[in-house]
Amino acid sequence: MPKLWQRNQSWLTPVILLLLPVGLFALMIVIPIVQSIWTSFYDWDGTGEATWIGLANYQELFDDPQFFVSLKNNVIWILMFLLAPVFGLALALFLNQPLKELRFIKAVFFLPLVLAPVIIGVVFTWFYDPTFGILAIVFRFFGFEPIAILSDENFVTFGIIAAALWAQIAFCLVLFLAGLSQLDAELIAAGRIDGASGWSLLRYVVLPQLRSVSFVATIITVIGSLRNFDLISVMTQGGPYGSSTVLAYQMFDATIFSYRAGYGAAIATVLFLIMTVWIAVFLWYTLRKEAKVG
To answer: Which of 273, 286, 291, 288 is nearest to 74 (CA)?
Structure first.
């Protein structure tokens, strides 16, 4: 037995070390995904007997106008959420200075990270209130009539996204501050000697060193925009008239309130495919760009 272990130690050791994490990943991630996809082919209320209906859930889904409203809102979420890494980087560059006065300001910007999304949703609901909210007070101060943002089909999605961005920008800020702390000082010094400063120093010396951080921030931000559910649930419950619903909330509503677990699983499958395709395209683009740079 000891000889067998010595002969195969080079590959047995990593296999044993990976056995538990791979097993947990399969148990918690892969199996639920497969079960969800399989459930999408059934008519099931979540408790009783499931009936096989094939692609009927998907056919109904693509005939449902609410699905396209949710899909449109998801696109809006993605486009606006991509501002989070940009603003996070800008704030990180501003706050990455050895000044004692900035410690308090950093703490203020970090505040959204320690707040639960439910609290953020409640606070922004008060903020948007057209009778006593801060936004209404500002509108009246300048002589304008307050807008009921969360009751207006044209503004409600943007109002919720603004609340979500407050926390997402703080998350990206932390990532970029960590990345800035790992910059190679010698490369920056060499860039300054070569005459680089301001924008040229940022573009050709700093940003290339933050490429991995930017990649993580972008991936997490887009995934967060696609699965955002809690703020919508707290602030509007998908209203008014379903105008602020996204795919994640529509899935929840169909499964929990309409007792249609199969239909909800079909929505979840479509959302999973969207995430998978986007991540695959983004990875392909990033790796190809890395190969060209290398």
So the answer is: 273
Return the residue matching tokens 């800008």.
90
Supply the pLDDT for residue 199.
80
* Nearest CA among 150, 147, 151 for reference residue 135: 147
Q: Answer yes or no: is pLDDT of 124 > 80.
A: yes
Which two tokens mark 37? 């996809």
The answer to pTM > 0.70 is yes
Q: Which domains does the chain have, with CATH numbers?
A: 66-293 (1.10.3720.10)
Distances (CA, A) of 59 to 53, 55, 255, 294: 11, 6, 17, 46
Tokens of 78: 């993605």
- Report the phi/psi class of residue 237: left, alpha or beta, with left for phi > 0 and alpha for psi in -120 to 50: left
2-29 pLDDT, tens digit per residue, is 666 666 667 777 888 888 889 999 999 8
Q: Which of 160-169, 182-191, 195-204, 280-289 has the highest mean pLDDT?
A: 160-169
- Comparing CA positions, the residue from 254, 257, 243, 60 lying closest to residue 152 is 243
Q: Sign of the C-alpha dihedral, residues 45, 51, 53, 55?
A: positive
